[in-house]
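testing teh design pipeline on a random one, pls ignore if ur not involved
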């Protein structure tokens, strides 16, 4: 990774060169020498930049789906955005989260292994307060969950995981299922401490309450589908063929669709006084001659031209012409 100097560091470097504390020639020699970069085997790089970009795109959709879901459930302002997608050891993730937090441990078949959706207590208790009729504020002191609170949170987060399926559908069809809800990170060991994970951090705002929601995906869980996270997979167009049975069902439904058809004899304008004074036998003059063709509309679109008549003693309209899109625009 290339280091980027701040403006203060640039000013200090220029000042050192001008004062003679640093020699420009020595700096050039150092640049030509072979550089050695330290590699930390505890922080193994398992996700490429391409993988990180793909995970970012996927979970930006996940954030939008979550925003819609929680806004509907809580009936208040909710805003969720992806802040960062990074890779780090699982042990480091456990140490970074609060000792008392909401840990939704879940599986997503056909992937093998467990993942975690960690919700900051401020956010979780604001949701709980809103669901139970409150204003959506978080208590100053976070206590252990009661049985009722646990059941309520399990239900809302279990349904929230369904949005993960929608976000991942371009890569794989997942079936997320909440396995357990924990509050103490020390009791949650889904992978070995040194296992690399992808951590997706989501900033969450519910009303005036803010906090983080973290999605922990171990590398070992999504390793079988890592090739699908490449940019090539995203931009290769795959032609989808529709099964004959689906086409038959679609055609049958279209034939049953009902649309209003209106044969317009003409229009007229009268004032309210004339309308209130209408009596049986009164005649209203229309704006079209009797021998002029009628406009036949399907819905609100002009589609046919016809002429009025009768058939078997009933009023009827005979279609004499079909209106194309261009002719319709010219008529209007």
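output:
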């Amino acid at each position: 990774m290339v280091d980027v100097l701040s403006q203060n560091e640039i000013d200090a470097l220029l000042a050192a060169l001008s004062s003679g504390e640093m020699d420009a020639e020595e700096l050039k020699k150092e640049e030509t020498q072979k550089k050695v970069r330290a590699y930390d085997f505890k922080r193994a790089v398992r996700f490429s930049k391409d993988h990180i970009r793909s995970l970012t795109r996927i979970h930006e959709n996940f954030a939008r789906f979550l925003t819609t879901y929680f806004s509907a459930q809580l009936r208040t302002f909710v805003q969720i955005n992806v802040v960062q997608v990074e890779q780090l050891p699982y042990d480091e993730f456990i140490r970074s989260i609060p000792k008392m937090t909401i840990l939704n441990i879940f599986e997503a078949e056909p992937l093998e292994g467990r993942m975690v959706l960690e919700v900051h207590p401020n956010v979780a208790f604001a949701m709980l307060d809103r669901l139970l009729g409150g204003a959506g504020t978080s208590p100053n002191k976070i206590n252990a969950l009661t049985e009722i609170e646990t059941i309520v949170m399990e239900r809302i987060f279990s349904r929230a995981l369904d949005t993960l399926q929608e976000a991942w559908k371009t890569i794989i069809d997942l079936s997320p299922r909440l396995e357990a809800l924990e509050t103490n990170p020390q009791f949650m060991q889904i992978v070995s401490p040194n296992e690399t994970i992808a951590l997706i951090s989501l900033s969450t705002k519910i009303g005036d309450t803010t906090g983080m929601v973290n999605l922990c995906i171990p590398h070992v869980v999504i390793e079988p589908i890592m090739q699908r996270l490449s940019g090539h997979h995203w931009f290769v167009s795959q032609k989808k063929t529709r099964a004959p049975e689906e086409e038959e069902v679609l055609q049958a439904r279209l034939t049953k669709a009902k649309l209003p058809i209106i044969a317009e004899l003409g229009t007229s304008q009268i004032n309210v006084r004339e309308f209130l004074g209408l009596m049986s036998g009164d005649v209203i003059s229309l704006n079209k001659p009797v021998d002029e063709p009628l406009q036949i509309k399907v819905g609100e679109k002009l589609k046919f031209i016809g002429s009025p008549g009768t058939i078997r003693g009933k009023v009827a309209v005979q279609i004499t012409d079909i209106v194309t899109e261009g002719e319709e625009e010219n008529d209007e």
